[in-house]
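<instruction>
Derive structure tokens from the sequence
<entry> Chain with its tokenised backbone below:
===
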Amino acid sequence: MTKHTLYFRFLQLTSGLLLLALLLSSLPPILPTRAWPGDMAADWISDEIEDTRALAWADMDNDGDPDLAVGNWGQPLRVYRNDGGALTPVWSSVEISNTTSLAWGDYDGDGLPDLAVGNRGQPNRIYRNNGDDTFTPIWSSPETDPTTSVAWADWDDDGDLDLAVGNWAGPNHIYRNNGDGSFTLV
């Protein structure tokens, strides 16, 4: 291509972009759409200002309504009890974590959901539900992988829940529940 041909193509491109910009500026502004009638207002807003990365619902106290676990980055975990639609903070972890994933599951078979916590660059943890709005850390992974997800299932069909851990740019893991509060990397 000659220098003149390149200049001509440049003019065509810039003229086309200018025309497109003029056309778009003459259109009416696009307003956000809603899938529901009227205004939407939050029914609940936490008092804490946090960098939340993970949320999980479960009926932690077996009262028939879902309670909320909140995983934060560089801050404690929090659990909120649902009392007929009103969420009340009842527990915060002592540990400061970079939480990316949460999963409720009854690892010890006591009828209360326990909390698995996936952390980035820190040990993953399992907290036992004590049944009184408190949780006790019972296990920490020996690895400090960049975890992005955790999930419970009875992987080995022995009657108790095992923990699967998904990691970013690295191997995923399954930890077998040994039935005594300890977990072994498979």
Observations:
- Confidence is low (pLDDT under 50) at residues 4-8, 30-36.
- DSSP finds one helix and twelve strands in the chain.
- The two ends are 63 Å apart (CA to CA).
